[in-house]
Amino acid sequence: MCGIVGYAGRRGAQPILLECLKRLEYRGYDSAGVAIVGQGLQLFKSKGEIAVLESMMPQMAGTAGIAHTRWATQGKPTTENAHPLADCSNGLAVVHNGIISNFMQLREGLLKDGHKFSSDTDTEVFAHLVEAELQGDLSSAVAKALKKVEGTYAFAVVSGDREEIVAARMESPLVVGLGDGENFLASDVTALLKYTNRMVYLQDGEVASITKDSLKIIDANGQAVQREPQKITWSLEDAEKGGYPHFMLKEIFEQPDAIHDSLLGRIESLEPEPFFQGNNFSSVKIVACGTSYHAGMVGKYIIEELSRIPTTVQISSEYRYSPISRESPLVVLVTQSGETADTLGASREARKRGNKTVGIANVVGSAITREVDHTIFTRAGPEIGVAATKTFVTQLVALYLLAMELGTQNRSMTAQARRAMVTNLRNLPRAVQDVLNQAPLIEALANKYASARDMYFIGRGINYPVALEGALKTKEISYIHGEGFPAGELKHGPLALISTESPVVAVAVRDHTYEKMLGNISEVSARGSPVIAIGFEGDSELPKYVDEAIWIREIPPIFSPVPTIVVLQLWAYYLAKARGCPIDKPRNIAKTVTVE
Ligand code: F6R
């Protein structure tokens, strides 16, 4: 996720672009840049946050321009890879939010045609594609270049010889703000509210040309589009979180897009990635902390199911000091920040032991990505809320992808099984959206139980780590004592804690453990505990055993942790809201733990 802004008007563009850009910093903050049309094209960019760019940049005269704040997905967060990216002659510049999934092929073709590249980004290919098509009209050149691009995008393009911005979108947000004698462009309305509240939302496939006193939109068939502006009634303050009261809720609601982005360009090929080709791993060890550890625990079930490779999971701080075994597993380090001290230490230890390492990380250029042999990036975009939500779900996506690589490489997975996996992965955003649509129901239930002191979470098999993660989210942000158990363990001790005062949340989807799960639910309800269950839609049995039920759409059980954890994220969020907790910044917890 990155942030884009554009301005064409009568005032100096530079301060307006910076002001708007700062409101998009939540979308990315690893590097930033500005291109202004004055006497030709002036470009300035830097690594780091927008404040760094602002402190370093010279005065740039000109009344039109574009700017970008980046969250790297392709190419490290360096000054060279920061946007805007220019063509060979620095005559035009491009900013982009999204992923060009066929950029490798496009880049090879452009190199053959003599284009010179100055970054490792997917975006730069677009600058060269437009350069190759430009013969007068910028909008037509952009429209022609778009025909070659696959993936998702919001683009804005300027050329040094005209005060015009050309923009286009496909599955990435882009809005035009209308002013008097000036017009604006941004990834979301929040960036523009200081200047205007009249917005025109661009649609997929459209190309817009924006000057100080005109907006022209054409659709994918080249037909002119007339669209009335909408009046936005949000206050500036509301808008910073995109209208959500907390970043955590916003990030929970971004999960369908985050899953979609994490799959883009990665599931089409039937061939394993080069790193996995020729490597037959006899075992896997997943090492991580906190929420990432829970993702790893789900990953164990997925990897063993799809590749049959024995997999263990260990907490990073435990692995670092554990005895060396005879095995030489593939060590998978899961860390959204890529900076967690214990996980970094574990990665170094794994390499010292001579093991191959794979990192699963959300931050391109983070420490772990420089240490491991291979990285699978989750493409969740920046996560501001301390409690991990969309990074967890995209870690699960990365683990499905990893399991498919391993299963394909060792031939445990047939091409047919792989195709079925792909279909199911593609359906996940919809399953998550279904859950999000039930947020009001989950809030009502959470309000009912928000005064509990203790809460227990139970699940079996692949749903046991989901229970653990639900308990962690609950304790972390609502300060209710939450504990997760494998449901079959209750009678070996935890039942002593169960009372009418302690609600039990049961992950009870219909899988091969379902009947046993119903038995475990009976054990707690017999002791008077209220039971709130998550089950598959259409299950008429579950309501007979529980006090409340939240339904998810029926999907193959191996995928159910994705929608079920979203239920529990919302559950924890609404419990915390009802208790008046500081949701985005829970006490005593930091987003990135860089100490042992
Ligand atoms: C909980 C949470 C933490 C992190 C843990 C590891 O909501 O966010 O438990 O999961 O500190 O962090 P990363 O994934 O950055 O290594």
Write a short abstract of this structure.
The chain has 596 residues and is α/β, with parallel strands linked by helices. It has 18 helices and 25 strands.
Any overview of this molecule?
The chain has 596 residues and is an alpha/beta fold. It folds into 3 domains: 3-238, Glutamine Phosphoribosylpyrophosphate, subunit 1, domain 1 (4-Layer Sandwich); 241-429, Glucose-6-phosphate isomerase like protein, domain 1 (Rossmann fold, 3-Layer(aba) Sandwich); 438-583, Rossmann fold (3-Layer(aba) Sandwich), CATH 3.40.50. The chain contains 18 helices and 25 strands. The strands form 4 sheets. An 8-stranded antiparallel beta sheet has the order 3-2-4-1-10-9-11-15, covered by helices on one side. Strands 5-6-7-8-12-13-14 form a 7-stranded antiparallel beta sheet. A 5-stranded parallel beta sheet has the order 17-16-18-19-20, with helices on both faces. β19 (357-361), α12 (367-371) and β20 (374-377) form a beta-alpha-beta unit. α8 (255-263) runs antiparallel to α14 and α13 (390-409) packs antiparallel against α14 (415-437). The longest helix has 23 residues, at 415-437. The protein is globular. Bound molecules: fructose -6-phosphate. Residues 289-292, 335-337, 340, 343, 387-388, 472, 476, 592-593 line the site of fructose -6-phosphate.
